[in-house]
Amino acid sequence: MASRDDELGDDEGIQRSVARTLANWATGLVSVAVIVAWGATSFYTLQPGESAVVLRLGARDRVVAEEGLHWHLPEPIEAISIVNVSAVRQHEFGLQRREPAAPKREATADDATPKRGDTTTSFDNAIQTADNNIVNLGWVLKYRVEDAFSYLFSIAEPELILHDATRAAVREVVGQMSVDDVLYTRQGDIRVRAREILEERLASYFRGLDAGSAFGIQEVELQVVQAPVQVQDAFDEIIAAGQDEERSISQARGDAKETLEAAQAKAIELEQRAVAYKESTIAVARGEATRFSALLAEYERAPQVTRRRLYLETMEEVMPEVEKMVIEPGSASLVPLLPMGAGTSPVSLPPPSSPRPAPAAEDRPERPAEREER
């Protein structure tokens, strides 16, 4: 009987030992699985343009910006937050959106109060100008996340703060301009100046913190710039008048340019003609002077012959169509006997000039007979 009880005790002990062994193995496997699963949470992947902010025990440890697979200590020792810092984001201001119609219900007092961030409010973009007029502006702010840590942990509700700062910057710029400046002439200045003020204001929000500005402003782009609906027709007429003025000015400038070019071309032509006339006149004068000098030389050599030739040439020029006949002086009694036609006109030679005095004996050349007599 005692041996049987011993056998039963041994079996129970074996069972208990096996149970403990299985329990230990199960606990070990579960522990390993938990440890593996806990360690698997330490790996993360960054896509291009993403940054990861790593907090160790709640404090900033590092910012990782390299794309690819990375590792950190498992939570709660280290925690990560991933932010896309390359995407260009945007906020819209004063641009109405068509949203699905809501079910009809009774209007309440809350409906008359504009909600913050409500894009369907029709007067959300009404801004007062420096000359106490009202303009409706709609614009888009384009920006990027500049510093991931500042964006996540430096300030509360960064998007809302950026929205309010942008609206305040645009209102400040528009409030310093006249309505004509805003509507027609200085929209570029509004974009540039609003961006500068917004960047300065955001920098002041993060000044003194161990981080840079959370936002990088890309552009303040105006989408809608118009007068209130009540006076829109009057402003449209002003715009049309301004366009007509510009068109008339452009046309007048074109006509003035065309007239000026024509006058300049005419002046150049007249100048060139004057120069050509001057040169031709000088050339003719020089030719006449040369001809006169040559004629003078001929006259000095043979004055009588030259005088007669000049007389005949002059009569030829004076009466080019008249048939002329040259007769010696004192032969007028022969004229009735000449067969003269209707166009024939006798031309008398000029009387011979007085005979030259005979040269002196010493100046006269010797004759051959005189040389023989000597």
Tell me about this structure:
The chain is elongated and about 195 Å long. By secondary structure, it is α+β, with helices and mostly antiparallel strands. The protein starts with a helix and ends with a helix. The chain has eight helices and eleven strands. The chain is 49% helix and 19% strand. It folds into three domains: 2-84, no CATH class; 89-97 and 120-227, Band 7 domain (Tetrahydropterin Synthase, Chain A, 2-Layer Sandwich); 231-315. The protein has helices spanning 2-40, 148-154, 158-174, 179-185, 187-206, 232-301, 303-318, 368-373; strands at residues 43-46, 50-56, 59-64, 68-71, 78-84, 89-93, 126-128, 134-145, 215-226, 323-327, 344-348. Strands 6, 7, 8 and 9 form a four-stranded antiparallel beta sheet that branches. A three-stranded antiparallel beta sheet has the order 3-2-5, covered by helices on one side. A two-stranded antiparallel ribbon has the order 1-4.
